[in-house]
Amino acid sequence: MIDKAQKFAEVAHKGQKRKSSDEDYINHPIRVARILKDAGGSESLICACLLHDVVEDTAYELEDIEREFGGEVRNIVAAHTEDKSKPWDERKAHTIEVVKTGSLDVKSLIVADKLDNLLSIEESYHQIGNAVWNYFNSGCKKQKWYYQSVAAHMHSGIIEKDTPSFFTSYAQAVERFFK
């Protein structure tokens, strides 16, 4: 099922590029899936990682995800998917609330996604400096609030022994980049 999800995501994101680079977009969900695979994530969670931006950024709907990959994958993708018709601040506040209250799978997807995003921003920042913020709907100050808020709430409701190690990598990246 993971191979099927990767192929589905490749078709869905065909021709899309990452912000501030000419990198093919599909590389991002593949990296996010690798983070979760390395952390021992379930097949459903790894599929959801590969598909996590399909509904937000393509013509596919949650119904397409459910039909092809089942209800569990659909539910994880749905919990991660932002309503792009809403303002940036509202979307991000909703994601922070999901991080506070979501299942470990949902939190893991969000944190892995934000980790990869932040590492990409950091790389671009080293290349083009503050001009990196021109590629986003909000500047450094709001991005800092968002990434720090995810870090502050990602442990909510999780027993320490169940916390994936990449949560620490995320917290360290936030601290390093936004110091």
Summarize, please:
The chain is mostly helical.
Commentary on this structure:
It contains 10 helices and no strands. The protein is mostly helical and about 180 residues long. The longest helix has 25 residues, at about 105-130. It is globular.
Mean pLDDT over the full residue set? 96
Q: Give helix % range.
A: 55-70%
Unreliable runs:
none
Named at the architecture level, the CATH assignment is Orthogonal Bundle
Helix and strand run: HHHHHHHHHH
| End-to-end C-alpha gap | 41 Å
**What oligomeric assembly is this protein in?**
single chain
- Rg over CA atoms: 15 Å
- By CATH, the superfamily comes out as Hypothetical protein af1432
What CATH calls the topology is Hypothetical protein af1432
- The secondary structure category is mainly alpha
Q: CATH top level? A: Mainly Alpha
Give the helices and strands, then pairings:
Blueprint: H1 2-12, H2 27-38, H3 43-51, H4 54-57, H5 62-69, H6 71-80, H7 88-101, H8 104-128, H9 140-153, H10 166-177
Helix pairs in contact: 1-3, 2-3, 2-8, 3-6, 5-6, 6-8, 7-8, 7-9, 8-10, 9-10
